[in-house]
Design a protein that fits this description.
The structure is a single chain. The N terminus is likely disordered. It is elongated, with a radius of gyration of 26 Å. The protein is mainly α. The chain has 13 helices and no strands. It starts with a helix and ends in a 25-residue tail after the last helix. Bound molecules: iron/sulfur cluster. Iron/sulfur cluster binds next to loops. The site of iron/sulfur cluster has 13 residues, from loops.
C-alpha cells in the first residue's frame, strides 16, 4: 500500500473559502478620494469668485463688536434667528459699555428666542466686561486673544478677524467641513484640522473670501442630506462619489 495514497494530508479536499455577504444596508465604505490637485483647487476658487466676487456673511452687525456678539450667538442657531433677536438688542447696545449698562437680565430677554440663550446672555455680558476692563472697549484683531473671551472659540475668532479686520483666516463650520471633504479640497477629521489644512493650501488671492464662498455653497447648494449637484458650478471638478450628476 502506498504511503502516499494513504496519507491523510493528500486525501483531504481543499476547503472552499466562503466570503460572507455584506449585511443588507451596510455597504463596504468606499475609499475616500484624494484631494484635488493645485490646478483644480485654483479652478474651484476662480469659479466661486466669478460667480460672487464679494461674498458676504448673513449675520447683521454694525461694527466689530456687534459682529463678535452675533457670531457668538450663532452657535447652534440660524443666522436668520440671530438677526431677529439682535435687531432689538443692538438698537439698545452696540458697544461693550452699553451692553454692560443694559445688564444680563435685559440681554437674556432679547435673546430668549434663540438656543441656549441663558448661557449666551451670560457670555455676552462677560465678554463685554473683559473688553471694557482689558481692551479699552475695543475688539482685539487677534485670534489668539479673542479665543480667551467667554463663548469665543477658534471659529468665532477667525470669522471676526476676517470680516471685521480683513485678516484672511478661514473659519471652518459644519458646512465648510462637509464641502471641503466632499470635493475634496482636503481630507480631514475635524473642523480645526480643516482650517489648518485650508489655510496651508488656499492661495493668497482666495484666502480672504474662501470662508464665505464655502459656507454659502454648503448652505445653499452642497447641502448635508441632498446636495444639489445639478446646479453646482464645480460639479465637473468634484470627486464626491455620491454626487448626483
Ligand atoms: S457636485 Fe455635488 S457634492 Fe460636489 S460640490 Fe457640487 S453639490 Fe457638492
Amino acid at each position: 500500500m502506498s504511503d502516499l495514497k494513504s496519507s491523510p494530508r493528500r486525501s483531504r479536499k481543499p476547503r472552499a473559502i466562503v466570503v460572507a455577504p455584506e449585511p443588507a444596508g451596510r455597504a463596504r465604505p468606499r475609499a475616500a478620494p484624494k484631494p484635488v490637485d493645485r490646478a483644480t483647487l485654483v479652478e474651484v476658487f476662480e469659479r466661486f469668485r466669478a460667480a460672487d466676487p464679494e461674498p458676504r456673511g448673513e449675520l447683521e452687525h454694525v461694527n466689530p463688536y456687534t459682529l463678535l456678539v452675533a457670531v457668538v450667538l450663532s452657535a447652534q442657531s440660524t443666522d436668520a434667528g440671530v438677526n431677529k433677536a439682535t435687531r432689538g438688542l443692538f438698537a439698545k447696545a452696540d458697544s461693550p459699555a452699553r451692553m454692560l449698562a443694559l445688564g444680563e437680565e435685559a440681554v437674556r430677554e432679547h435673546l430668549k428666542t434663540i438656543n441656549f440663550f441663558n448661557t449666551k446672555a451670560r457670555n455676552v455680558v462677560a465678554l463685554s466686561r473683559r473688553l471694557v476692563e482689558e481692551f479699552g472697549g475695543e475688539v482685539p484683531a487677534d485670534v489668539a486673544v479673542l479665543e480667551t473671551l467667554p463663548g469665543v472659540g477658534r471659529k468665532t475668532a477667525s470669522v471676526v478677524v476676517n470680516v471685521a479686520f480683513g485678516i484672511p483666516r478661514i473659519a471652518v463650520d459644519t458646512h465648510i467641513f462637509r464641502v471641503s471633504n466632499r470635493i475634496p479640497l482636503v481630507v480631514t477629521a475635524s473642523p480645526l484640522e480643516t482650517q489648518d489644512a485650508l489655510e496651508a493650501i488656499v492661495p493668497d488671492a482666495f484666502r480672504r473670501h474662501a470662508h464665505h464662498w464655502l459656507i454659502l455653497h454648503g448652505r445653499y447648494v452642497c447641502k448635508a442630506r441632498r446636495p444639489e449637484c445639478g446646479r453646482c458650478l464645480i460639479a465637473d471638478l468634484c470627486r464626491y462619489p455620491e454626487k448626483t450628476v
